[in-house]
Amino acid sequence: MNGLYRPRHGRIIAGVCAGLARRFGMTPMTVRVLFLLSCLLPGPQFVVYLVLWVMMPNEDRYLARTH
């Protein structure tokens, strides 16, 4: 499995869904649809997205740290 980071390519907003998809072996569109469907449920989905945006490193920083 790959590490958890926001890729340079394939982003729509911040790359959080694309990074999660790459980490868990899914397509980015599947993760985006799951996120949108989860927004129909009560909970802090947007807050979690914002926290992941801040906490997940960019691909450049991740690769520099691992090499």
Written description of the protein model:
The chain is mainly α. It has four helices and no strands. It has a domain at 11-55. Helix 1 crosses helix 2 (28-38). It is globular. The mean pLDDT is 90.
Number of helices: 4
Task: State the separation between the terminal residues, measured CA to CA.
Answer: 16 Å
What's the alpha carbon Rg, rounded to whole Å? Answer: 12 Å
Tell me what portion of residues adopts beta-strand conformation.
under 5%
The tally of strands reads 0
> Could you state the order of secondary-structure elements as H and E?
HHHH
How can the largest sheet be summarized? Answer: none
Helix content: 55-70%
As residue ranges, the low-confidence spans are none
The general outline is: globular
What is shown here, in short?
By secondary structure, this protein is mostly helical.
Question: What features would you highlight for this structure?
Answer:
single chain; 67 residues; mainly alpha; 58% helix; globular; membrane; PspC domain-containing protein; cell membrane; transmembrane; Phageshock_PspC_N
SSE layout and pairing:
Elements: H1 16-24, H2 28-38, H3 45-55, H4 59-66
Helix pairs in contact: 1-2
